Amino acid sequence: MGWGRTAMRFRCVFILVVFVVAYLFPFLPFPSARNAHSADAPQLKLFQALMCEEIFSNAPRNPTIVFSVEQKKAVCFTSFSEVPQITIIYHHWYHRDVPSAKIRLTLKPPSWSTYSSIQLRETDIGPWRVEITDETGNILYVLRFSVTE
Amino acid sequence: MENFAVFISSIRWQDVVDISLNSYILFRFYVLFRGTNVFRVLMGMTVLWFLQRIAISLGLIVTSWVVQGIVAVGAIIIIVVFRNEIRRVLQAKNLKSIFWGLSYKTATTPTEIIAETVFQMAARKCGALIVFPGKEDLSDAVQGGTPWKGLITKEMIASIFWPDNPVHDGAAIVQGDQITVVGAILPLSDREDMPSHYGTRHRAALGLAEASDALVIVISEERGDVLVAKGNRLREIKQKRTLEHNIQEHVGTAAVNKGAVRNEALEIAAAAMLSIVFITGIWFSVSRGQDTLVSLDIPVDYINRTAGTQIVDTSAKSVSLVLTGSGALVKSVTPDQVGVRLDLSKAAVGRNTFTITSDSISLPPGIVLREVTPSEVDVMIDETIKRELPVQIDWVGALSDNLILVDSVITPSNVEILGGKRILEGIATIYTEKVLLDKLSGKGEIAANLVLTPPSLKMAPGFKDKVTIQYLIRERE
Predict the structure, then answer these.
(1) Model ipTM over 0.85
(2) Which of B389, B391, B403, B404 is the best residue to mutate to test the A interface, defined by the most A CB atoms within 10 Å of its own CB?
(3) Which of A20, A149, B326, B470 lies 20 to 30 Å (CA to CA) from residue B445?
(4) Which fold would CATH assign to domain B384-475?
(5) Which residues of chain A are at the B interface, by a Cβ-Cβ cutoff of 8 Å?
(6) What is residue B308's DSSP assignment?
(7) Rounded mean pLDDT of B130-143?
(8) pLDDT tens-digit map of B365-376
């Protein structure tokens, strides 16, 4: 009889503990499934972005922020150290805040370097910027340069 | 009626003072110089001035020039020729009488005593010369003489011309009830047609009468005749009553009665009224008569703007006002006396169109608005916001061929800008002024101003419109 009462008391305490734990569980500082997933999932990682005069042997040559019109060309080089999957990025070229070109580039895993360029003319003289964005338009980086005479 | 009210409201206090002051000056001129030759010449000059104005209004250029020249020369001639007369008027009166008093003609000369004495002396064949000056100054015509200033009595006149008196050969000058000068030497007449029995005394009497407006009584020492010289006439007087009447007419004693005083007061009152009318007429011709147009570009002042909003654009920074008024007033108008104000208290965010009415424009009195261009102004009102924007350098020029600008760091890299919401939403970058590359080498630091376009943009508090640029230049590979 005494054992039976003890067993009953134990069951009640157990049920109470289960309820309390079940109630408090969402508030415990465990990583959520979503966070755990995003933290663990490999992300696109921009390693290098710069303006240069030309690409030589798949590498930027003469990085600069001022281009003479006489050089005929300005190159925007971007290098990604982590590319989890085939990804589309964009190079948006702006001349004095006015959109000038939007170049679509494809990145392939596991890492990838790519570039875009524009031909320089007399009318292109002035300040420029290139916004590097992902497919959804998130700006990954902004490069600023000038075209001079 | 409305025009009259507009006219009354356009009269400035300066105009009232102007008319009053000049009317009084003209009136004082009349009081001081009435009856003199100066006054007559001044009247002539006034007529000439009117002729000149008429000639100008008719477009007679040469005529107006000639008349203007005559008036200008005439003014100098008056001062030179009538200097003694002017001096006498001004010296004879104290300052109060020049600016305030009314000089009624004094008529205190005892004409009866003089006439009676003259005939008594004539009966005794006692020669005499008695001068009664008119309005003209005699100081140029009369030479020498001894100041006397004695009240006129029979005995005094008789004693002056008593043969043993040292001054009996000269003339006695009578002013009012006094003999002011005795023994005066008068100019002699050159006339050839004088009777042979007339002596030097007669010639002297006629000489002064010819040279001035004085009346001169002469008693012949040889014949005991009494003669009166005035103008170019020398006539004999037989009766005491006639002589007395002649003297009274000359010195004004005949006019001394209540009626005459009243007439003179009326004359002065009429002169005062005419002075006011005359000056008012001149004021009208000068200040209102000529419609002169002038065009002024006046900046528009936008007032009562709602807090938290700003003007980002206007269709007109200034408006052109065509103003009309008299030449004198219009020429004196300066742009800072004219204001164009638009009340923005009822303006809303966005485009607002305001019509510029006369209520929006403040003008000096006497100036009338004829035209406003443009008559409507569009004002773009925007909500004021603050936005953080990146700064970019506007490089210009060129480095040496072997150099490239590798990098630059701007401090601060971002600035906060205050401005209209619509404008700031369309701006992604704040640029520096043009920064010249030509003289740069190696690495260094330079400063550059920021260019805020449009000018309605302002730096937020805590931010300067200047940035520091650190640059790095290397040789090209």
Answers:
(1) no
(2) B404
(3) A149
(4) RNA Polymerase Alpha Subunit; Chain A, domain 2 (2.170.120)
(5) 53, 61-66, 68, 94, 96-97, 126-127, 129, 142, 144, 146, 148-149
(6) T
(7) 83
(8) 778 888 899 999
